[in-house]
Amino acid sequence: MTSRVPYAGQSPRDLGGGVRSVPVPIPGSPLGYTLVYAIDSPGGPLLVDAGWNHPDAWQALSAGLSELGTDVSAVRGVVVTHFHPDHAGLAGRVREESGAWIAMHEEDARLVKLMRGFGERAHRDFQSEMLRRAGAPSLTLEDGARPEPPAQPDLELRDGDLIDLPGRTLRAIHTPGHTPGHVCLFLEDAARLFTGDHVLPDITPHIGIYPYDRDDIDPLDDFLTSLDKVAALGRTEALPAHERIFDDTAARAAEIRAHHEDKLVRLAALLTEPLTIWEAAALMRWNRSWEDLSPMLRGMAAGEAAAHLRALEARGLIRRLPEVDPVRFVAVDS
Question: Where is the Metallo-beta-lactamase domain (predicted)?
Answer without folding.
Answer: 33-242
